[in-house]
């Protein structure tokens, strides 16, 4: 859906005009006054908030400090151009990986919280992919990211947009919590049922047709970028899978990839 918004009074700016990188390193995080360490793996795609962290007690090498309300943009890709679009705003201070850019808004130019929409836009991440350096894994540098251009509305309009974005995110968070609690209830009911009322036991292998998954060669570009979802553990964070991050071509299927029917039950066989 495309919104019809009057942008006649919006001005074109660079990211570095309205924000700056806060880069402060700490040599021994375990001895610091910070308890929380945020690594790349603690941040999920399109998250507005940091939802997971670890203890700094196990961190033995130099890392970076971030402050409350900093934006934490993961600047390193998982593989090639797969950056996974991760740039939440921290609601606490702590230590983070050196592969995370810590970014602060300029309060004179930006309404509080507005930058979340810029850093979580598909256009910005296309810019990241185009300007990152490296081969197997790639990184974006602040000196390159700061030149990203976008249209900036007046502060009053920024406040309206920011309120809308954060309001939607709050609704999504509440829904996720409701789904989580419902899943716990269903799991508890199923445990009670099968523990107390199951009279006939059969091997799990006899309960259906089991098919092993496989990964088409990442070195063959002809296998990737098609229309068929290729589901991996990173997609299996919800009960119903409608699509996947990666997709494969018909050639990959013709040459051995398993094509499963709808309603198939997927089980992760390796440790995440």
Automatic annotation (TrEMBL):
GO terms, biological process: DNA restriction-modification system
The molecular function GO annotations come to:
DNA binding
Q: What Gene3D superfamilies is this protein classified in?
A: DNA methylase specificity domains
Q: Which UniProt keywords apply?
A: DNA-binding, Restriction system
- Protein's UniProt name: Type I restriction modification DNA specificity domain-containing protein
């Amino acid at each position: 859906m495309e919104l019809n918004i009057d942008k006649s009074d919006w001005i074109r700016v660079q990211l570095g005009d309205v924000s700056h990188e806060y880069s402060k390193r700490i040599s021994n995080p375990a001895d610091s006054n910070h308890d929380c360490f945020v690594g790349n793996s603690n941040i999920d795609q399109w998250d507005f908030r940091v939802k997971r962290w670890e203890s700094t007690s196990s961190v033995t090498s130099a890392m970076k400090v971030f402050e409350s309300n900093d934006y934490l943009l993961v600047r390193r890709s998982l593989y090639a151009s797969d950056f996974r679009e991760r740039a939440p705003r921290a609601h606490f201070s702590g230590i983070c990986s050196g592969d995370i850019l810590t970014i602060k808004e300029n309060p004179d130019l930006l309404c509080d919280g507005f930058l979340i929409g810029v850093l979580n836009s598909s256009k910005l991440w296309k810019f990241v992919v185009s300007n990152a350096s490296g081969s197997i894994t790639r990184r974006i540098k602040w000196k390159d990211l700061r030149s990203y251009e976008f249209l900036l509305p007046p502060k009053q309009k920024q406040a309206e947009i920011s309120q809308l974005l954060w309001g939607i995110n709050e609704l999504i968070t509440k829904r996720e919590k409701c789904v989580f609690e419902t899943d716990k209830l269903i799991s508890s009911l199923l445990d009670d049922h099968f523990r107390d009322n199951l009279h006939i036991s059969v091997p799990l292998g006899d309960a259906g047709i089991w098919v092993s998954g496989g990964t088409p060669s990442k070195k063959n570009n002809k296998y990737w970028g098609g229309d068929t979802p290729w589901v991996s553990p990173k997609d299996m964070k919800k009960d119903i899978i409608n699509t996947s991050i990666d997709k494969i071509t018909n050639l990959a299927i013709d040459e051995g990839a398993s094509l499963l029917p709808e309603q198939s039950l997927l089980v992760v066989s390796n440790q995440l």
